[in-house]
Amino acid sequence: MKPSEITPLTTIKVFELMEEAGVPAGVVNLVLGSGNTVGAELSTHNDVDLVSFTGGIETGKKIMQAASGNVKKIALELGGKNPNVVFADADFDTAIDQAMNAVFFHAGQICSAGTRLIIEEKIHDKFVDTLVERVKNIKLGSGFDEKTQMGPLISAEHLAKVEQYVETGKKEGAKIAVGGKRPQDSALKKGFFFLPTIFTNCTTDMTIVQEEAFGPIITVETFTTEEEAMKLANDSIYGLAGGVWTSDLLKAERCAAAMRMGTVWINDFNVYFPHAPWGGYKQSGIGRELGKLGLEEYTETKHILHNLKPEPINWF
After folding, report:
1. SS3 312
2. Fold of 83-266
3. Known catalytic residue: 172?
4. pLDDT tens, position by position, for the chain (316 residues)?
5. Active-site residue, from 19, 58, 77, 228
6. Which strand (E) or helix (H) includes residue 58?
7. Which strand (E) or helix (H) includes residue 286?
8. Which residue ranges make up each domain of the chain?
């Protein structure tokens, strides 16, 4: 296993716990280093039979190219720009609560974040107004503080990237309903914090709607019909996950079938089960993690035939 060079500590701790638990040496190995050196070596080395990668599209494409040199098997989970579709007949309060959790959990730094909020037009104003007021009260702070609801971004470089996406959104015509900047609280000045942000007046051609910012940003679009909602939901190069909120069971099932994503949650979001496969459609990746399919990614199929009574064929 090779963690990102900017997030190694959790993985190191997991390996320490495995050692304490008695996992034999060599069963699982930890390799630390940068993607450009260590990652590249793993992707091309002849003794590595499979590379399973979770990360960005561009890095995933580089791994595909590198692995093609020796036709190495790959499994890629390359993120998403995930739609969260809310119909007027949804449970309003729960949909509000989960719209926040879908994005601001981990400050949006999660591949399945429901950053594209697609709301039925007739409830748009009430939904956005309520959501904005709730978002204003999110407490930012250190992960070591039990009262913290949202932590910082991973690095100064990533904070600058998120800020650039916000500036691009404003230039392209989206309106900031809340957030859109670093917090002014002096206690947060030393961290890479960014306020939870909601953009309204968004269209599918905007950069902030199409590209994964990997930060605490929600874009809001509206629809009037089920068909329009599905068109908006699928208008992306990504296809990792999505959610649909409605009290109409048949409509929920139709939408789940229509959404071109590896996982669709109905009246829920960001719920995972170890026995359920996880992975994406389109440019969100190749292969699956978790479940039986996830285990099969790490196996090689072999057919062995043993003739217990060999006899001459006598063809020649």
Report:
1. coil
2. Aldehyde Dehydrogenase; Chain A, domain 2 (3.40.309)
3. no
4. 999 999 999 999 999 999 999 999 999 999 999 988 999 999 999 999 999 999 999 999 999 999 999 999 999 999 899 999 999 999 999 999 999 999 999 999 999 999 999 999 999 999 999 999 999 999 999 999 999 999 999 999 999 999 999 999 999 999 999 999 999 999 998 899 999 999 999 999 999 999 999 999 999 999 999 999 999 999 999 999 999 999 999 999 999 999 999 999 999 999 999 999 999 999 999 999 999 999 999 999 999 999 999 999 999 9
5. 77
6. helix 57-68
7. strand 285-286
8. 8-78+275-297, 83-266
